[in-house]
Amino acid sequence: MLNFSKINILIIYFLFFIISIFSLLNFQNKDNQIIEKKINLGLDLQGGSYLLLEINSDNLIEEKIQSKVIPIKKLLKDNDINYNNFKINSKSLSLSLDNIEKFDLLFNSRKNNLVNPYLDNYRSYELGYKKISNKEIEIFFSKFGLLTINNSALKQSIEIVRRRIDDVGTKEPTILQRGEKRILVELPGLKDPERIKALLGKTAQLNFRLVSENNNEFGVEELISENGEKLNISKRIIMSGENLIDAQPSIQNQNNEPTVSFTLDRLGSQKFGRATTDNVGKRLAIVLDGEIVSAPNINEPITSGNGMISGNFTFQEATDLSLLLRSGHYRHLY
Known about the structure:
This protein has helices at 6-25, 43-46, 58-66, 69-78, 100-107, 143-168, 193-201, 266-278, 315-327, and strands spanning 48-54, 83-88, 92-97, 118-119, 124-125, 127-131, 136-141, 174-178, 182-188, 206-210, 220-224, 230-234, 239-240, 244-252, 257-264, 284-288, 291-294, 306-309. It is 34% helix and 28% strand. The protein has three domains: 46-56 and 147-200, Alpha-Beta Plaits; 58-146; 206-327, Gyrase A, domain 2, CATH 3.30.1360.
């Protein structure tokens, strides 16, 4: 005869109770399940689309180096450094200086350096330069400057892919970085890769338009923002995403408020300057792929090519808005 202690008997009853519950789950009604039994099948079991995308950041490097032209000329002018033969090459700038030593001190300064920021994570500067002759130099992105551009482009491309895939409505896609320039996309159950290629290859359409209180000569259309606000937006495009060089989250020192700082190219600076000067007090809609990303007020003319978007953001919201703005003008997926 077997003798069990009270503790052993309780453990045996408890195990029988658990086993009984799992057994009863096999007979539950599909429309009223207590626990949903679900196994997600991968590409090997249910099929689907597998894509490996690669980014091309060459155009972005050209845009970035061109964005340095005005700041460099301003640096030289403000510090009485004479220059000539200023040339814009595909991925570099070349010019002749009368005082390279003074330029070197300013160019590689860590304090308030708006031309050549110091990259703390790499302990290096964004830009470098080399002497071509006694007075002529060539300015280019450093190894780590290029790495920063590439990493930024990759993150923004992943954001583009994610937004495009969400539009398809496929469930549980896998979007992963592979190496320095590649993005892996797995779409279980979706067996039309050509459709996905066409969708991902489509340019993200970003533009800036005024919020209109009444019909104007260009006409208006009603668009809905991400927070559900309905606004009448002028069809006149003030500036497109092609004029946007960069957008980054930042903290406004005065109020410690998260904001989005953006930089425009020369043409964009001129367009934006005229529009903001003539429309102070009005709202400017930032429209991405037909949806309003943000509609901030124009508080003052923005003529320098550098602006700030504020709107009671959290830092995460400012980061996401920066990503959306940057993703709106990149066309380097292939």
